[in-house]
Amino acid sequence: GLWSEVNRCGQNGDFARALKSVNKILQINKDDVTALQCKVVCLIQNGNFKEALGIINTHTKVLTSDVIAFEKAYCEYRLNRIESALKTIQSASQQTDKLKELYGQVLYRLERYDDCLAAYRDLIRNSQDEYEEERKTNLSAVVAAQSTWEKVVPEDLGLREATYELCYNSACALIGQGKLNEAMKKLQKAEELCRQSLSEDSDVTEEDIEAELAIIHGQMAYIMQLQGRTEDALQLYNQIIKLKPTDVGLLAVIANNIITINKDQNVFDSKKKVKLTNAEGVEHKLSKKQLQAIEFNKALLAMYTNQADQCRKLSASLQSQSPEHLLPVLIQAAQLCREKQHAKAVGLLQDFADQHPANAAEIKLTMAQLKIAQGSVTKACMILRSIEELQHKPGMVSALVTMYSHEEDIDSAIEVFTQAIQWYQQYQASQTRGANPKSPVHLSLIREAANFKLKHGRKKEAISDLEELWKQNPKDVHTLAQLISAYSLVDPEKAKVLSKHLPSSDTMSLKVDVDALENSHGATYVRKKAGKLTGDNQQKEQGQGEVKKKKKKKKGKLPKNYDPKVTPDPERWLPMRERSYYRGRKKGKKKDQVGKGTQGSTTTGSSELDASRTASSPPTSPRPGSGAAVSATSNVIPPRHQKPAGAPATKKKQQQKKKKGAKGGW
Length: 666
Description:
Belongs to the SRP72 family. This protein is mainly α. The chain is 67% helix and 0% strand. The termini are far apart.
């Protein structure tokens, strides 16, 4: 009765009813091994992993490890007790195929990718069933993880990318290698395969397809972000968030990536997105490096939003979790700098550099930057010179020489060059076993040192560098010329001897067609210009110039009523009211006297109508719905005349008078 019921329900997939029948059997015999096993299976099928594990642990005498090892390990795996699951699998007396499959999953979650790869290869080699495609997908996922997180160049597994999952994993592996364009093509292929696969099922809606494509689109957006196409990436990220996918890991990654795009801008949007990274279960969906990156960005966001205490708390927590990691210390130092505590920031960085010499180089570079920001250039140089592994690098040499030159410390700058050149000499001597060929970087440093010394008048010190360069390349005429110039001040005889090595004028002469050169446009112009320097030509040109000047003179126009017999009025150039015979105007002729000055000017409201005052006033923002205000720099032409307020009749009379014929123009 009861067992047949359990069997029938199990075959139909009705594990809730099967569980009821099993419980009835256990009421009769509580230590029935088969019944307990069935109960554990029913609970697992119903998703009650905690209860199933509880039954296993309370019946250890009956349910021994060799009987229930897989079920126990699976419950621990699903409850995210990954270390416990690994111990359970390893302690099992017999390694069944089911345990090997679970072992591969456990190793992947523990990020032991090399062991995981070996486990899946063994499974694929020794298994022949309908799950081969799933195993290959898992194998490709391991390779993608190695490429992304461990920067291991993935080997070609020879897998045929017939499914969108395999295509997607292949794209992830390419992203890890930095092959972004190839990865994008793979993702586009994965999207196409996904649509084809899901569209064959009539029950699948367009919304279901978009939900399944969300992870592919998220990876596409990530590639766009890496390529600098931040606007496109942001648009795609937000489209995915609007779909509200159920994968909390995907949402957390997208939210984090949006925060990195926003940086110190749009912080309110970033604060909303942070909530998605705090969702329940995120820590079990992402890798350790992903979770760490999210925590770093939380600390940075706290700094950007001026939450100093929160920033310190988060960065201190990160530092305790990863004492050797640079970012927590750099974030703390940045926060101190925002609070104007530069000395404290430098002290913090110095302590970290002392405790972790392996990471000291990057920390010291930051310290030097802080010193430069404070104006302590010499101290910054001292810090940079203490980084032994970078002293010989061209970039470091260039930076130090520039900084010392700024401080006018030429001796220290030359010392930097000397130390770098000596390092290359020692290195090459050790590599070439006595032979001493110069590398391009070494020769470049010697040349820069020589040029620097010559520029700052240290010709004596430049001689040895120039001789070394000439020795390496005796045909270098430029270096020889510099060497002769340097010796001319120190040892003129030596300069004369060296000058014999200069090529003769015959060998240096160029084969030039003189006639063609003289007949060219440029030569004609130069020749004409040169012709002006000769005496005759100069006089001729001057004579022509005088003629031209006379032609330009125009005779003044005489008045229409001009009489040559009458002597002109000697006061004709003075204004009428300033002439000796001026008697003034008759009173009462005009009621409104128009002000003196130019035609149309007025005294009333002049400040209001002054165009120059309006132009010099600062522009104001337009009101909503109004036209934009014209700024002071606009090219709007102001009106030439303004009509005086309250005197229209006067203006009209003036116009009439002008029409009748006023004498003379303005």
